């Protein structure tokens, strides 16, 4: 069912990714489209009713205003009529806004869900779906108005819409959560955290805990982990570190499913992610009983900063993440020397009673990973001279190519991933 296909709940993320509309007239982006909602669903999804969710998504999109439910509407007005008892992929909304004279029907019962058109005559009351001249409108589907590729979340997910009611609310909540999850990430975030993080995200959403509250707790745990590493209390430090990485998964998902993303929240979260890892390794080394050569720290910091610079340098060759250029890069992201894979090395070394070896492993893996990234950047620069680069996920058919392991890992045609 399409209701289980993934949705990412931050509409402004995907306005640029809705993809070209096939065979349709495009909207002049300078126009304002008035959105009118009708019908309601007696259910709540991540603390929002379908109507409230839809209003919040539309308010975040450029060139859209919610129409007055009582005012007259002039001829020539661009309008988008939507049933508010449905959940919409933001990419579908964005695609509808870019179209003109189209009708979207429920993929299952073929009932009219949405109409995007320009009114021909003055109206004394807001337009209704039942009044639209459907025979003059082009029928569209979710995947004909929106692209499945989501560059920001590094994945392919089929766009979708689904009717909401009290019977499928949990199913839709799970679909919204799946949609908020990155497709290409490290192996812990991808395969260990999804299910427990979903439970904690749900708890936070209904308890009124906001994403920045979770991020603030992550800051506290980050400092505690560093202090404990510094004192050589590696067991307690690792507990704090792993809890921090878990909450780092929760805060972003909570922001997306509750539509509480903000520029400050993104910066607040990303600054922590960017800065703290090498300082954990420094604290780990200081906590060792043995003297650690200063060069070890220098190589860790150089390798870490070099890796991040390589990721940025790739953007000079292509406007998307290095990790979705080719299947190799997506697989490499699972294990490259970011925080979680390095924490695995440190944890295993501590369990084996060899914390010093853990630090050396982090140094070696960081240097190797950075060299691999630098090699990929060089290859990308060379390839860009021969033509425009594109992410491998934009060329796959997730159904027909389901036999490929990389497609099963990183491209989700039905959303059944968590």
From TrEMBL:
GO cellular component: membrane
Keywords noted in UniProt: Membrane, Transferase, Transmembrane, Transmembrane helix
Gene3D superfamilies: 1.20.120.1760
Superkingdom field: Bacteria
Cross-referenced InterPro entries: CDP-OH_P_trans, CDP-OH_PTrfase_TM_dom, CDP_ALCOHOL_P_TRANSF_CS
GO terms for MF: phosphotransferase activity, for other substituted phosphate groups
Family: Belongs to the CDP-alcohol phosphatidyltransferase class-I family.
Keyword Transmembrane helix applies: yes
Gene Ontology terms: biological process: phospholipid biosynthetic process
Membrane-traversing stretches: 348-375
Name of the protein this chain belongs to: Phosphatidylglycerophosphate synthase
Stored Pfam families: CDP-OH_P_transf (PF01066)
